[in-house]
């Protein structure tokens, strides 16, 4: 009788605890059945109820209550597992979306190379690792775009950015806008080397009846990234206006 009373007390305590935290009707129903079974066991120990027919089925209440409790707990575990799976999927989706947004913020949508924002972020943090820059602008691109359509113009830009990526490394190529690109170099180039780059790229673009003009400028401690880019930009326009098509090298002034 003392053992049954102990189990009755424990059952009631567990039921009250679960009622406070879970508010689960199925779980409460199972605990109720189980407690009734325990209660009948206690009453069964009293001689007055010993011959009562109803008391003979008290064990069934406990078993049924235990089954309902197990079903309810399994239901809760299943729901929790599904909830965790949904939360994990949601987190993965948000991480993927965040990565896409970060990529879009730093890359050109058409060519997939980095954009102006990414360029200045790198120059402001790792400018010391860059020795020089190439400033490139396509010649006769507008005419080709107008003559053959925007689809061809997009194809020219994509192929040109791919060529630059293969030659100088994808992480060193930046599209500044329109048909203007910039390349960060880890090593300085001589004027003849810059000219060779210009000739090779122009030869590759000849199938579209498009050429390229290149300006070159070297990074130094006494020049800001903006100043170096401006020097290369001016050198590029000098190259574009030069009938000999020689790439210009910006002076340090």
UniProtKB/TrEMBL annotation:
The keyword Magnesium does not apply. Coiled coil: none annotated. Residues 129-252 form the GGDEF domain. SUPFAM superfamilies: Nucleotide cyclase. Keywords: Membrane, Transmembrane, Transmembrane helix. Gene3D superfamilies: 3.30.70.270. The keyword Phosphoprotein does not apply. This is GGDEF domain-containing protein. It comes from Pseudoalteromonas piratica.
